[in-house]
Task: structure prediction
Amino acid sequence: MRTQIRHYFLNAVLFSIATCSSVPCFPQSGGQTHPWMNPTLSPDDRASLVVKKMTLDEKITLLHGTGMEGLGPVSPLAAQSNGGAGYVVGIPRLGIPAIQMSDAAYGVCKSGENGRYSTALPANVGAAASWDLDAAYAYGALIGRELRAQGYNMSLGGGVDITREPRNGRTFEYLGEDPILAGKMVGALMKGEQAQHVIGDLKHYAFNDQESGRTAVNVNIDQRAGRESDLLAFEIGLEDSNAAAVMCSYNRVNGAYACENKYLLTDVLKKDWKFKGFVVSDWGATHSTAKASAAGLDHEEPAWIFYGNDLKKAVESGQVPLAEVDEHVHRILWTMFASGVIDDPPRKSVVDVEGGLEIAQRMEEQSAVLLKNDGQLPLDAEIHSIAVIGPHADVGMISGGGSAQVDPPGGNAIMPPGQGATEWGVPIWFPTSPLKSIRAKVPGAQVQFNSGSDPGSAAALAKTADVAIVFAYQWESEDMDLRSLSLPENQDDLIAKVAAANPRTIVVLETGSPVTMPWVDQVSAILEAWYGGSRGSNAVANILFGDVNPSAKLPVTFPKSEADLPHLTIVKPPKKTTDADSQGWRRTAAGLPAFQVAYDEGVKVGYKWYDAENKPVLFPFGYGLSYTTYSYANLKVAVGKNPRVSFTVTNTGSRAGAEIAEVYASLPAAAAEPPKRLVGWSKVKLDPGESKEVTVEVAAKYLSIFSVEKDGWQLLPGEYTFMVGGSSQNLPLKEAVTLR
Result:
């Protein structure tokens, strides 16, 4: 009996410790709670009160994670983790909970591994294609709710690096090539997440624009180009969302690692942008103690290689001032108070599966871009025969990989039951079947499937059908770059043969980046579906059959050829820079030999490059078709601190729709800028024949250049031309004004 009591008491103590590390346990003193638990105090005041009561060991506890296999030592305390990417031990005696972090780019990761369910939203680049801030907010809010339901209080999503290199394996995680579009969209997404009392995070700061040699590459970019491209996207995202965390990236920038880069972390982020939250390193991206601390890195993940005992010794020896450590801790505590994770901690609950699926489907319906339509779409419900062709289009749709990967319910849809566990580096297909969704639309038609593994057999089937629909894909993942923008596995040849057999061929693309299309003139319609998420096939079927009128527009340019890109090839490290053994993290932590990448295109990113270099493109930035048509008229520009651009949009077709009306501006010649830049937009819903007057207020910063001499944004006096229309290359309205 005594043994049973001891076991019971021990279990109770362990349960209490575990509970206090994941939810607040507020000790009482004389019947009073800790003064910093008063929610009427400011987050700054609350954080300051806590810091004063902390020991040095407790402070250092908040400055690092507890480890991850393969990326550093693993602490026994990691057992208290919720199963996410990072775990920070709390301070129970002070009522400070643990931080439970999960990767969550387009949904909560590792849910299957943890016995949970997560909704997969369309890829982030697809969200950007919606150009819809309300939809982005709903996207973030869904992720925030599902994080909380699984017991997490910090998201590691929020990717906003500019698509400077479209072959980057993480293009699908980011929000396109324009800093204003990307910044506004990530701002809305983060606002949605943080409204659920989850710590939001923007990453990867900064210029993590390729995966090849990411832990060794040194990005060379001039200050003005940096501030007007990737950094502007981060700046706007932070302004709009007050995201509480920023993750610094693996790469070097102008000679210094991003996670010990004083210019990025202190001069720009903390001083210029007045960022009050904390900087967390990417996993294994910390390379020093004193240098990183002085530069502005607040927290090391996933282990304590530099910010554990080494940091304590550095403080005790005077190498790192205690005040510096206090600032790091204050920022983390401020974040926890400001985001609500202390006052309203997450509690595990059941995810609203059906609600999540509905949001994912609506998001995909707003994200899929109709690139070509020779009158083939929408399909007639009275159609008699359809050939559905393409790898695995009978069972599922592909998703993006790496740390963004969401586990599909039931496992990888292309594997036998019980054999489809998520594996790093293996393409994962969600059980959202195009074949089933199309059959559901036309139950009386003959809908047949061919995998396309034999192009001749697929073409023979296509020839017998009224219409052929080819589902093609390009898989992307963290830790790799695309070999090219061509479709893999001989799919270009498949599409060409099917189109030759049946000119009524529709191509549905499941990609995370632009692709080249040697068959573009042979097919009747093209729909870019991106990675469609948990209910992608239903959304695609709704668009193909006209139940949904497409409205999305490209957030990235589709070039005619890779020869037209600013860089013909991706620069890669001259030799292997990491070892696959379990101690490879030691070499990475010590700092791998640098190799150089020069972003000498400067501010000419994406469409600005093609405009400035007079290069024709396959499909331009901002382009997307609808099942109706729109006209523009009555442009007026009211000059002021923030110019107001007004115009009329009319639905000239026979269907209700939503037009993304885009506003661009050209700057005075003295600015030495590309021909035009996006400065605003409005998504306008219109019934057939309806007209609406639209006003877009343009922030002065969006018309400015970054002056290195003045170390700030400068609006040059002179003539500015505002242009309005349906894409970056379809701008029927123009008006020049003088700004001073």
Observations:
- The chain has a mean pLDDT of 94.
- The chain has three domains: 41-339, 368-563, 628-739.
- The first helix runs from residue 2 to 22.
